[in-house]
Amino acid sequence: MSDRLAIGIDRIKCDGHGVCADLVPEMIELDDWGYPIIRAGAIPPSVLPHARRAVSGCPTLALRLQRVAARR
Amino acid sequence: MSIALLAGPPGGQGMESLSSHQQRLGALPAVPPALIDSIERSNLRGKGGAGFPVAIKWRSVASQPGGAPVVLANGGEGEPLSRKDRMLMEQRPHLVIDGAMLAAGAVGADEIVLYVGADHVGAIQAMHRAMTERTASERARLRLVSAPVRYVSGEETAAVHFINDGIALPTSIPPRPFEHGIDGRPTLVQNVETLAAVALIARFGDDWYRSLGTGNASGTTLVTVGGAVPQTVLIEIPQGMALADAVNAAGGITSDCDAVLLGGYFGGWVESSTAWGLPLDADALRQLGYSLGCGVVAVLPAGRCGVVETARILAYLAHESARQCGPCTFGLRAISAAAGRVAALTPTPGDLEHIQRWAGVLAGRGACRHPDGAAGLVASALRVFAAEFQLHEHDRRCSVASLAVAAS
């Protein structure tokens, strides 16, 4: 259970490029201004590779993977 | 009550000197070895707005690696409807300093920052004078810092950011101040009223403190009552007192009233029929889905429209956004603009629906809780003033303005 991962975000770093929503639409949609709305909870295993790509592809490096328990 | 946060010389006499403070309450006791356990039994909650259990916070700071901790006594008080922190510091600065000293002793801190809103001139003067009355060794550990006049200045990461870098804006978490705060050291950020309560608990015990509350509630709490009362007043009440009793203690309502803003701008509207019976107790209110916040009770006077008042508060909150996070910057601005149009009876199609949708996705999407506070306020307004919002948007009418016309 301890390795269940969620997507975390540094809201100050995020500039709303929206790349993440393209790369992992299962977990992220965009609001009316292009800023991500992230689904709470653990990333399903099948989606994890996409989530990793979104984390590494974020132009401002605002995304991270974090343990579910650490999320708030 | 002779022993309480505001007990002592009448408030109008200004600051209580060190000698009368000590005469009244006795000298500052040595830090009791089990102070944190005693605070836990007292059920003391942070009085800054979030209501976090104090003992848990202190243990987290005390057990952090990373050097000697720092205590930041938070008297930023940016909430426009609140008076409690500035008046407590003006009248009982030594109680606040005692509490900060005890906190420092309990968590192992060697430095205390007294953080006071720059516009709270009387509070700064009183804290400064109180510091000069302390011993040289106490003074050496105390630093008085005036906080920029801004709503977010009192947010705990913003306070730490200001001390470190002179920028009173929130920072991303993690790390939280208790892990990495002032000068990178573990930092206890605690509201000044909370610290003042500790100064009493350390002297008179947690049993005594608990007994001050009503029913299951513990201790006392400071409440600013404003709006449809003779004048805005600060009162200290047994925690758990019914809201109606607090309003009566403030002089009673001066007009009919349909709603109460409970908890300040970060709180929410409550229909008066429900509000009067609510217990002013942080825990009980949370369980009922409300928030005591920083202890604001603002009674909406007859003749004031809840939609208009909500739009006014939203304009303020949008303006006070630190503009660091997109959802807060753009979401709050858009919600405020739409609410402003609805309030002014000049809605554009979809305004009400937009307000609802945008506010619904705001919570949890900022570095700090600024958007969460605004979202909660909007949700409460849409519920309590649902009919009035509809009237404003669909009929372009305001029932309050109509009443004024009918009466003239």
Counting DSSP E segments of at least 2 residues, the number of strands of chain A comes to 4
Instruction: Output mean pLDDT of chain A.
Output: 92
Number of helices of chain B: 19
- DSSP helix fraction of chain B: 40-55%
Shape of chain A: globular
The main β sheet of chain A shows up as: 2 strands, antiparallel
Q: Look at the structure and name the CATH superfamily of the largest domain in chain B.
A: NADH-ubiquinone oxidoreductase 51kDa subunit
Strand content of chain B: 5-15%
Which CATH-level-2 architecture of the largest domain in chain B?
A: 3-Layer(aba) Sandwich
What coarse outline of chain B follows from CA principal-axis ratios?
globular
Helical content band of chain A: 10-25%
* CATH architecture classification name of chain A: 2-Layer Sandwich
Mean of all residue-level pLDDT scores of chain B: 95
CATH class of chain A: Alpha Beta
What is the end-to-end distance of chain A? Answer: 17 Å
Catalogue the unreliable spans of chain B: none
Distance between the termini of chain B: 48 Å
Question: How would a textbook summarize the main sheet of chain B?
Answer: 5 strands, mixed
